[in-house]
Fold:
Amino acid sequence: MKKQNKKATPRRGKLGMDRKIFIVLFLAPTLIAFCTFYLYPLVTVFFTSFCKWDYTNITKPEFWDWDQLFNNYKYIFETYPYFWEALRNSTVWALLGVFFQIPVATLIALAFSRKVRGVKVIRNIYIIPCMISSAALGMIFLQLYSPLYGVVNPVISLFKPGYSENILLQKGTAFWAMTAAYIFFTGTTTLMILGNIMAVSEEVREAATLDGASGLKQDFYITLPMIKNTLKTVSILAATSGFLLYNEVFFLTRGAAGTYSISYVIRELAITSPRTQFGRANSVAFIQIIAGMLIILFVNLVYELPSLWKRMVGGSK
Structure:
């Protein structure tokens, strides 16, 4: 038996090595693509955020001297007039994605999961707006909000006679009008949640029904806990989508009336500005990356709070 084991060991080692080589070769194209199209740009954004890079040296960014290394960040934090406004707006849109858009999508998905006549047709109708690009939707809402021929001003006139202002140029109302242009379009998110709801075992539902849990109780105590990971994933997607909001800003307001976003600030610095301030734009982009990571941590913490609370309560008992 010992001789047989000794003879089998080299063969097993060779098979293990062959398997490792196969895994490396299999993953190599993905790793190369990741490094080329994601990692390299991220590293470039970080380093060039400490560079003087504008129209004077557009093909050759140069690092600032040590005593001026943080010039770009100092300009963004202290001089540039729209950064803090953009950061505040993007943060609010990210939070609305988590605490408004996802609950709405979840309720709609739960309604679509009911076995009632005509629900499949309603599902297909509901997904149609998500087949339209955000740019096209922005143009549609631009027409809806038009004070000349839009439908919003006549509705406002019912409560405020003679109203003829453009709500996209009114500070405060412009922010919420633009938010409404994207926040209710949850078709893709709803379908992702619905797919996981439909994947919940019927046996589990039947057992819950026998125990007296049906309707909303079954949704709250059975379905939602079982799709928690999906809800966490779509919450991260909704939060990052809100934080990166750009098309709606560009097509509806162009940053007017306090509606700047972080993505729009990057465009303004890098493209719209006659000085093509790439270094300063990349400093904002790096802040955006860090903020995105914090948003992901925040969403994970929100979903872990109930279990942490149970542990604390259980420990105190």
